[in-house]
Design goal:
alpha+beta, P-30 Protein, six-stranded antiparallel sheet, 4 helices, 6 strands, RNaseA_domain, secreted, disulfide bond
Length: about 160
């Protein structure tokens, strides 16, 4: 009976240790200082289902404005038509370093580029979207995308 209790104690300790380790890996996955920058990147550029006809609606709904303004129209915004995991790998094995923490995707991505046609302030920003396939260049911090630098036409 004593032997069974010892085995149970060891088993419970092992389960607790595994739970502690698992939770630390989850917390370790993304540094706290990157989270807001990564979330902003996703808000501005993740668009697996955004079409070229959705530009004005998506930019307005997501509250995307010109840098440094509360409601100024952004001149250009690009939505990457892929899931966040496919985009994230560009900052690692799926991308080629370009210097200054920039990585160019090894594979082209479908994107929708929204260009301002008229308006200076939200909600009067009018956009025209164009769909294309491009190699994307991302600014990365510790393998997390935090900035969309540019798209390079596939060709």
């Amino acid at each position: 009976m004593i032997e069974n209790n010892k085995v149970m104690e060891i088993h419970q300790s092992a389960v607790i240790l595994l739970l502690v380790l698992a939770s630390s890996f989850t917390a370790y996955g993304q540094p706290d200082d990157i989270k807001p920058r990564y979330q902003k990147f996703l808000n501005q550029h993740l668009g697996p289902r955004v079409s070229e006809h959705d530009c004005g609606k998506e930019i307005s709904k997501r509250g995307i404005t010109a840098s440094g303004t509360a409601n100024g129209c952004k001149d250009v915004n690009t939505f990457i038509q892929a899931n966040k995991n496919d985009i994230k790998v560009v900052c690692g094995r799926g991308g080629t370093p370009q210097g200054r923490n920039l990585f160019k995707s090894n594979q082209p991505f479908p994107v929708v580029t929204c260009k301002l046609q008229s308006g200076q302030r939200q909600p009067n920003c009018q956009y025209r979207g164009k769909k294309s396939t491009r190699y994307i260049v991302l600014g990365c911090d510790r393998e997390w995308p935090v900035h969309y630098e540019e798209g390079i036409i596939n060709g």
